[in-house]
Amino acid sequence: MSSRGKLMLQMVKEMSEETTECEPHSENNIKPKSQVFSLEPLQQENNNVTTSSIDSSHQNILVYSVAPLFEDDSEECNNAAKIISDSLDNQHDMHNVAGPSRGSYFYQHDDHEVELADDDSDDSSLIGESSGSEYEPSELENEENEPEDEQENEPDGEQENEQQIAHCNDTDCGVPKTNTNLTSRGTKRIKTFPVKEKTSRRRIRKPDTWKRRSAAIKRERGESYISYKNQSVPAKTFCSECLCNERCRLKCSTKFDLDSRKLIFEGFYKLDINAKNALLFRSITPLPIVRQRKNAIKHKTSSYKYSMILNNQQVFVCKSAFCALYQISRKKVDIIKEKLKTGSSVPSKDRRGIHTNRPHKINDDVEQAIMTHIKKFPSEESHYSRESNPHKRYLAPNLNMSLMYRLYIEECREQNMPGCFLVKKSTYSRIFSTKFNLSFSHPKSDTCSKCDAGNSNAEHEENVQLGFQLMSRDRERALKDEKVCYITVDLQQTMPLPKITTSKAFYLRQIWFYNLGIHVITTAGHKSVMQTWTEDIAGRGSTEVVSSLWNFVQTCENVKDKEQLVVWSDSCAGQNKNFQMICFFQLLILKGVFKVIDHKFPEVGHTYLDSDRDFGRIEKVLRKQSNIYTPDQYRQLIKTACTRNSTVNAMESYFRDAESLPNKMGLIHKKKNVLNEKVPFRDGIKWIRVVEFGSYLYKESYEYVPFKKVSLFKNNSPPANYVPPTDIEFPRIGHKRGNISEKKIANIREQMPFILEEHRGFYENIIGIQEEPKPKKARRTK
Predict the structure, then answer these.
(1) Of 76, 355, 542, 585, which is least surrounded by CB within 10 A?
(2) Which 8-state DSSP code applies to residue 347?
(3) d(CA 448, CA 557)
(4) Of 409, 440, 471, at which residue does a domain stop?
(5) Is residue 297 part of a domain?
(6) Which of 440, 460, 492 is at the close of a domain?
């Protein structure tokens, strides 16, 4: 070994010894409720020296030191230099971590993070990702082919001191480590969306923000503005010089000091244009002519007196002083005098830009007829954004503006209406956009409200990119690792039954056909699983999603013998991001189906999942099919669209009682984690991980930060001598959960003549079941 390599190796060993001094070496040094984090499985290869100790009673991994030994003389300098550079950088990178006391920090060295607990941290419990008693990280995270760590049993410590584990490595996170600034409590700002009072489809006009209108408003206020010729006009100021000629008989300049002039000027320009005209109209008084000049070319027909109020007294001034005090032109005064000549007692309202000469204006009867026709089409409120946009409603997905306009013209011709009702498509579209807040197809969070409004910030754009990188890394990992299964879950846009081209059907309601798409990626390749049902069978809530996932886990061969399940879905709280889904993951862990379950959510508004590609192929086939009468026809078309390794299942008899899972397993929904911090379940969580029964871990970002833990037991720990239940039943639901309104049943009955005879049995069965009298509940007897 060269002298340079020996010197660098000695520096690495000294640095490792300094790290060892900062960490506990005996079980006596382990403090109550202190947490130790290891961000990668500890290596134990032939060329590595690792000192570690494991507390089996509390599942703590204590990392002492990691010092690689170099054997190859050609690479020793490069490897040693890299380790020294990383170590020096990490020694100065001390992150204040949310959770423990103020004296508790992370110390990062050689891709390991170790918490150094201060002596005063007697009640700190920094929570990260728990590995569980049966799950070893190295069994799953084998991208670098690292063997398991040696474990040594330590004597049982104090049982009342709860110890937690945190485990998260680079391959888990899927993104490079970045420095994250955490607050003192590790909380994140909750996203709030204001309620929109938008009652029309088109953008609301804001004339005050228009360039020429804004200039006119500033001109009224006497402020500086930019004219339409792009010239800067200075602001008006009160007259501080002589108000009129020195030979003026009224001596106007001596009547007003500077304060009075300023007060009159500012009061005048606080008024709007109509109030200004009223003030000028009252301040000018017409008088009869006293004398006339004999040799005048044109005799004047009237005379005027100008006055204003000063200190509650009427003061008369000349015309020049009158214009100078108010900073108006002589032409403005002449216009007011012309109004006075007409004998009017009040000035007319300002009507600049307003006229009634509109030869092409649509009559009110025509506009009302168009609005009545639009109201005939059934609409429903938003499923995703009813709170933030309560006025938004959605038409059927098979409608569009051209089709609605064509139906309106046909209706006018059938009723022999006058020619004025046969308006252009642009007129129909304008009324549709200004009088209604309607959209086509069903609401779906495919666009981002922040990006559409131009309010996206750097953090939002960074989260979008990190989410895409993490999803891509999970996808590639599932193709290489035999123990990992990657799936995306999403509900397709609802499809109508029956789907017919009769014009009358567009004004009536149809039954919805639901399709939950599950796209699976494993070492065996890609596979699409479609779980389908109709509206009369069940709804589209969390129970239906959980039942579809359970059926998928039980029947799909690609999931067998997998140890880790990675799920990507949108953040819809009514379907995917809820407590029933957490309990379902607890059931899978309890029954040993998986050892680790990761549920990840893309940034809101950027949920581009693999299932969307499957839905695109399906919709392309459905657009070419004019009439569809039964669910089996939909399933056959879906099978035709997804030709490569796909399965289409009918879920009529496979829905499960997911609502009873929390009571059967003895779990409760906690609003706070074990650190007594509020859990931002709906808006803040980006990543949920389940590795042991009775708790789950979560993150609020995709970055390299520790997990936080939420216990699902009452007192954050199971009761004494608690044995997890292993014989939990997940029974099927014996009755239909769907509910069709009476109006929709009436509309289905009207469409029966347009349905082929061989397909009417499906709808007759639905109508008969819905019309059966429901059994009344028995009254209580005392």
Answers:
(1) 355
(2) P
(3) 36
(4) 440
(5) no
(6) 440
Asked if 396 and 328 sit in the same domain, the reply is: no
Buried b (16+ CB within 10 A) or exposed e, 109-146: bbebbbbbbeeebeebbbbbbbbbeebbbbebbbeeeb
H or E element in which residue 573 lies: none
**Residue 55 to residue 34: CA distance in whole angstroms:** 12
Q: Report the DSSP pairing between strands 380-381 and 393-395.
A: antiparallel
Same domain, 462 and 581: yes
For residues 175-210, one letter each, b for 16 or more C-beta atoms within 10 angstroms of the residue's C-beta and e for the rest, the string is bebeeeebeeebebeeeeeeeeeeeeeeeeeeeeee
- CA–CA dist 124, 32 (Å, integer): 9
Token pair belonging to 480 = 């290489």
Gap between the Cα atoms of 63 and 70, Å rounded: 21
Q: Give domain status of residue 43, yes or no.
A: yes
Amino acid at position 182, single letter: L
List the alpha helices (DSSP H) in 318-416.
319-326, 330-341, 364-375, 401-414
185: Cβ–Cβ under 8 A, 6 or more apart, which residues?
Answer: 98, 677
Query: Do 110 and 128 sit in the same domain of this protein?
Result: yes
Asked whether residue 30 is assigned to any structural domain, the reply reads yes
Q: What is the pLDDT of residues 317-351, one digit of tens each?
A: 999 999 999 999 999 999 999 888 888 888 888 88
d(CA 724, CA 755): 54
**Is 552 inside any structural domain?**
yes
The label of the residue with tokens 């009476």 reads: 742
Sign of CA dihedral 727, 728, 729, 730: negative
Q: Is residue 323 located within the same domain as residue 395?
A: no
- How many domains does the chain fold into? 4
Coil, helix or strand at residue 437: coil
Angle between helices 76-91 and 3-21 (to 10 degrees): 30
Do 281 and 406 share a domain, yes or no?
no
Nearest residue to 309 (alpha-carbon basis) of 268, 366, 362: 268
Distance CA 490, CA 576 (A): 9
What is the distance between the alpha carbons of residues 565 and 552, in angstroms, rounded to a whole number?
A: 13
Handedness of CA 553, 559, 560, 562 (dihedral sign): negative
Q: For residue 64, what are the domain limits?
A: 3-173
Tokens at 57, concatenated: 């009673």
For residue 62 the two structure tokens come to 């204590």
Q: Token pair of 95, please?
A: 């992150």
161 and 236 co-located in one domain: no
Between CA 675 and CA 612 the distance in angstroms is: 38
pTM for the structure as a whole: 0.52
Is there a single domain that holds both residue 700 and residue 570? Answer: yes
Query: Other C-beta atoms within 10 Å of 553: how many?
Result: 20
Structure tokens at 180: 């994250």
Beta bridge partners of 61: 54
For 461-468, the CB contacts below 8 A with 24+ separation are 463/603, 463/686, 463/701, 463/702, 464/602, 464/603, 464/606, 466/175, 466/701, 466/702, 466/703, 467/600, 467/602, 467/603, 467/606, 467/686, 467/702, 468/602, 468/606, 468/608
Q: What distances in angstroms separate CA 549 from CA 488, 589, 645, 687, one per listed residue?
A: 11, 14, 18, 19
Percent of the chain with pLDDT over 70: 69
Q: What angle do CA 740, 743, 748 make, to 5 degrees?
A: 75
Residue 87 has pLDDT above 70, yes or no: no
Q: For the chain, percent helix, then strand, then coil, each to nearest 5? A: 35, 15, 50
- Quick: pLDDT tens for 16-29: 554 444 444 444 44
Q: What is the pLDDT of residue 564?
A: 94
Both 515 and 569 in a single domain?
A: yes
Which residue did the predictor score with more confidence, 13 or 616? 616
At 369, list the tokens. 């007829």
The encoded tokens of residue 426 equal 């642009």
> At 499, is the secondary structure helix, strand, or coil?
strand
Spatial CA neighbour of 138 closest among 16, 20, 52: 52
